[in-house]
Amino acid sequence: MKAAAIQMVSAPRVQDNLEAAARLVAQAAAQGCELAVLPEYFCLMGRQDTDKLVVREAPGEGPIQDFLARTAREHGLWLVGGTLPLAAGDEQHVRNTSLAFSPQGECVARYDKIHLFRFDNGQERFDEARVIEAGRGPATFTLRARDGRDWRIGMSVCYDLRFPELYRELRADVLLVPSAFTYVTGQAHWEPLLRARAIENLAWVLAPAQGGVHETGRRTWGHSLVVDPWGVVVSQRAEQGEGVVAADLDPAAQAQWRRQLPALDHRVL
């Protein structure tokens, strides 16, 4: 199965971002990808945290969700909308939600980001809990590929990457990590953490990211990549800016690695 991690430099305007996402998903489809994953905040990188509140949608309705369903159906592929803001338990918060759509345009899975990022190095300050309500549990879905093979797909978002227990719980063949890593934390930890999660779980990792200098002045790390179950980066976007990172996910190679090193069967805790 060929899969794509899509890199974006999203703006503070939803419509502009949806047009960019449509263009990039079309590129992935033209390359024969069966799965395309958009980055965290693909639909909006606002000027302030509360901008998310203005564009939030109710589950199952709204222009962003309609776009994802329509685009998946148009290209006949599985499409994961990195994250978008969905309504939360009060008017001051949203859920940072990743949604998976089938080639028929049906929403087959929802994951609300569990771990909320907080960072303060004296120059940059982030505290997602100010406007985001944390999710409560993991999420997976089964992807039936065109060759009839079923893949177990595990969902996560950005800061989740620092919590390996989540990925153990997913027990997935493919781990999705749509992200908007800061430049500082990404430069230090992005690739090592992604490779570690792949190695620990003998799983493929697709990590689409925001990557570049945004209109707001925020700089994100980018370097969207695909890692194989042995921890090797098989495809990566080295430069900043939007683009498509595609790779063939080989189920036979994964099965062989899991047979040779049955670490997943040796778990004690």
TrEMBL record:
Keyword field contains Hydrolase: yes
Keywords: Hydrolase
Residues making up the signal peptide according to the UniProt record: none
InterPro entries: C-N_Hydrolase (IPR003010), C-N_Hydrolase_sf (IPR036526), Nit1/2_C-N_Hydrolase (IPR045254)
Classification via Pfam families: CN_hydrolase
Record-given protein name: Carbon-nitrogen hydrolase family protein
Organism: Ramlibacter humi
CN hydrolase domain residues: 1-251
Lineage of producing organism: Bacteria, Pseudomonadati, Pseudomonadota, Betaproteobacteria, Burkholderiales
One Gene Ontology term of the molecular function aspect: hydrolase activity, acting on carbon-nitrogen (but not peptide) bonds, in linear amides
